[in-house]
Amino acid sequence: MSDITSQSLTSLVQKIKSKSLSSEEVTKAFIDRSEKSKELNTYVTEDFSNAITKAKKFDQKPNFDLKLPGIPMAVKDLFCTKDIRTTAGSKILENFVPSYESTVTQNIWNEGAILLGKLNCDEFAMGSSNETSYFGNVQNPIDKGLVPGGSSGGSSAAVSAQLTPITIGTDTGGSIRQPASFTGTVGLKPTYGSCSRYGIVAFASSLDQAGPMAQNVEDCALLQEVISSYDKKDSTSIDFKRNEYSKELSKDIKGKKIGIPKEYRVEGMPKEIEELWKKGIDYAKDCGAEIVDISLPHTNYALPTYYIVAPAEASSNLARYDGVKYGFRAKGENLIDMYEKTRSEGFGAEVQRRIMIGTYVLSSGYYDAYYLKAQKVRKLIKNDFDEAYKKVDAILTPSTPSSAFKIGEKKDDPISMYLNDIFTVPVNLAGLPAISIPAGHDAAGYPLGLQIIGKAFKEQEILNLAYAMEDKINFKNKITDWWIK
Amino acid sequence: MSIDLKTIKHISKLSRISVDEQKAEKLAGDLNSIFEFIEKLNELNTDNIEPLTSVAETTLKFREDEVKSENIREQIIKNSPEDNEDFFVVPKVVE
């Protein structure tokens, strides 16, 4: 690994500021490594030559007051980037070039960062393994033939393989935290309303949230500080006092109360996950936190609720892809035939499945039985967290019920794929912030993650807990560069 | 409950996705197993529970209705799948 790409974001920022590295050197180092890493299939679209031009421009007239001065980075291909193709991992958007920029990416460029390219993801962020992408599977840098998680699978793989110092993903049911856990990286899903949804290709609007992915907690905090902002262009953006997360980062978590929900001890959970969780509890205790047993009684109902709410919103959001104004169009005998063929040929199987589920639960005669019922159970799930947070400051759970699985292993069994998100989905339904940090390895040497769930708007609190625990855990990712010939 | 092929055809029409026999059968199988999983919610009594429509506990803010993007027709039309200069083109709808 190169001396440059193995460094943390925080270290790269310092070196650029102290002029011991130029933006061009840093940018070229990540591009060189990306060029050698095509086999991972992390990039859908590269923008390398523009990146070098921008880096040179930065070096000629540097502004060291910025938070990401001349730092190159790639982003998930779900964020609209002006004049750069944005596909959402779908054939239907294969040739779509946005005429505008998402707020989150604009915030990043405003702080001096430089776009390297757009990263692979599950189609419309629907998936947990990156296998639903029209642009092919992504390889997990941990081992050949292993999924990187999803939907932000290109993002997690790119950070883990050091093809980008940091990145951003989106998380609707676990799409930042599960891939972070599968690749030994850190991923934060912020509170709903913290980061603007403007310019992010919509999946399920009441659940979608953008967040940072990084090699460590400090980098994650810095990126969260940059992307989180109140935005008038997103009607559910919330105007609250945002911290300077990286500056206020502290390892002092003495006396913090951490809840352990008994319902997360699910049947059939591998022993190594159970052990990881126990170790996590010990780490938290070592840091001076107090452990409290809690109950989140409706946990088991979260996934069924999610698989009504998310497809319902998706079926509505994806109605816009009709082959008229942008995107792929199939030939049809008449207008309706054109719509039906465009959507049948343009969307992949999982997306069609979810549109069908969503259409069904919203259709006349079934709305009350499914959609309304799910919204009521969603309330019960949120109430569980509200009750728990009267007693504790945060909640500690495993991030996923297993380590990364093999490509193809779960592809034909939607339910077994959905079960991957059993620990992450309740957080989205309740709109809470949660972070996944790497905390150990299984017998095969694959990384395992722990999840810390916080109160709404208390990103600083969970970042601090993660920062303190990260220090105790002292995780080392086992990357062998197997894909570099 | 079970989702039959007739229901699949109906949903496919509502969602404007064409489905042939083979695909319909595959979808029926998938949707049935997913709905079996979803039926778990019926274990819960939710009679007196208020539905949660949004976790963002804010009322929508009003803003002035003003034009902020001007002269972007060309940019917008550029992404249209049919070649044209001024309009979105669709198959003929009026005989």
Succession of helices and strands of chain A = HHEHEHEHEHEEHEHEHHHHEHHEEH
**Top CATH class of the domain at 9-255 in chain A:** Alpha Beta
CATH architecture of the domain at 9-255 in chain A: Alpha-Beta Complex
How many DSSP E strands of chain A?
11
Strand content of chain B: under 5%
Structural class call of chain A reads alpha/beta
Order of helices and strands of chain B: HHH
Strand content of chain A: 5-15%
Radius of gyration of chain A: 21 Å
State the end-to-end distance of chain A.
13 Å
- Which percent range fits the helix content of chain B? 25-40%
> What about the largest sheet of chain A?
8 strands, mixed
Q: What is the element layout, followed by pairings?
A:
The complex is a heterodimer of chains A (485) and B (95).
Chain A: H1 9-17, H2 23-35, E1 43-46, H3 48-60, E2 72-76, H4 103-110, E3 114-119, H5 153-160, E4 166-170, H6 177-183, E5 186-189, E6 210-214, H7 217-227, E7 257-261, H8 271-286, E8 290-294, H9 302-317, H10 335-346, H11 349-362, H12 367-388, E9 394-398, H13 414-418, H14 425-430, E10 434-441, E11 447-454, H15 459-473
Parallel strand pairs in A: 2-3, 7-8, 7-9
Antiparallel strand pairs in A: 1-3, 4-6, 5-6, 5-10, 9-11, 10-11
Helix pairs in contact in A: 2-3, 5-6, 7-15, 8-15, 9-11, 9-12
Chain B: H1 5-14, H2 21-38, H3 73-78
